[in-house]
Specification:
The chain has 414 residues and is α/β, with parallel strands linked by helices. It is 59% helix and 9% strand. It has helices at 2-41, 52-62, 69-92, 141-155, 175-184, 197-211, 213-224, 230-240, 255-265, 267-275, 282-291, 296-307, 313-317, 323-338, 340-352, 364-369, 378-385, 387-390, 400-411; strands at residues 97-105, 111-119, 129-136, 166-171, 192-195. A 5-stranded mixed beta sheet has the order 3-2-1-4-5, with helices on both faces. InterPro entries: Cggbp1, DUF659, RNaseH-like_sf.
Amino acid sequence: YSRESIKTKKNKPIQQQITDSFEISNSQNQFHIDLCQALVGANIPFFKLQSLPFRSFLQKYTNKSIPDESTLRKKYLQVCFDSTIVKIRQKIGEHHIYIMVDETTDARGLYICNLLVGILHQEIDPTPFLIACKVLPKTNYDTVSRFINDNLMNFFLQNSEYQYKVLLLVTDAAPYMIKTGQALNTFYPNMIHVTCVAHGLNRVLEKVREIFPEVNKLVNNGKKILLKSPHRVEIYKNIMECELPPEPVITKWGTWLEAALFYAENFNKFKMFINALDEDVQTIKKLKRVITSASIISDLTFIKSHLSTFPQALTHLKKINNEKGQIMAHKFNSVVEKNTGYALIKKYNDCINGMKNMNVEQQPAIVACYKMSSITSVEVERTFSKLKDILSDRRHNFSANNFEMYNISKKLDK
């Protein structure tokens, strides 16, 4: 009896130590996961953990062992990514969905294609989730179609039922995207392909820039003369008494029109500012020729009169009985006519709003899902704008797989 008692007493502490070690291990693993997720969410590079002051601070106030940056990258980034994908799957559930896709060239010169998935339901916020971010060897309908198909299959765990739940594809109006939509209709029979309406409106604005060359020169050169010239900026502020002119960016929709409207509202003062500059600079000479041209006043007046409330202005363009108005109206009609998916979405929307005699062949339950449908690809453009934060000058060595996991784990709103 005494020997058995001694054995029991010896065994008890050993059992407690094993249990405690498991608890410590689980706690430590969870801390590493949470730390990895926090760094990714705040976009703090893993190499910051190698900073001795930062590392000492974390150890002091957490009483935890701080992992090496390579440990987080090799072991815990995958865990965070898997957790993010599971959460997105749970949010999507069994609902009908829409997808957005677009590509861009990142700071490394690589073709990046992003795929977003959102819920299509008459009572649910349609905010989409990023589920794939891949590097493509080139961008054409074949690579983009395969990218969409493969990643949807992976996301839905190869459950073929999802093919009938994809109701909408939103892309830009690039020819290869149009061809992609046509190719994917074979696999997704209920899918409508809509090209981004915002892209279409921007193409109309590009036409505006084309038919008003003098205004375009004013906008482009007005931006240049104030760059890296504190002396001119000081003269500008003394004369203009307002903010600097808006800087048009080709990749940002509407910025050219915003700048043109600024010059329409402040033309006389801007003319005084240009005449006050006596430097022998080519840009200033161009501006002096532009502000004295015969058409600049009438062109700015036209833009201010008919385009200041764009896109409501498109309605007015159709009523303008002159050549320039008709050119823009024709361009708008051409853009809309090519967007056949938009016409069908509009038809469904009329049906949802109770208009009668609508010849709709789709099931009522599916038509109702389009109540909250998106007709722009702005959300996928936003994911690209955030790539600049991730790909700083010191962070161009991401592997393709780690880049995707990092980007997707960062995007999900906790």
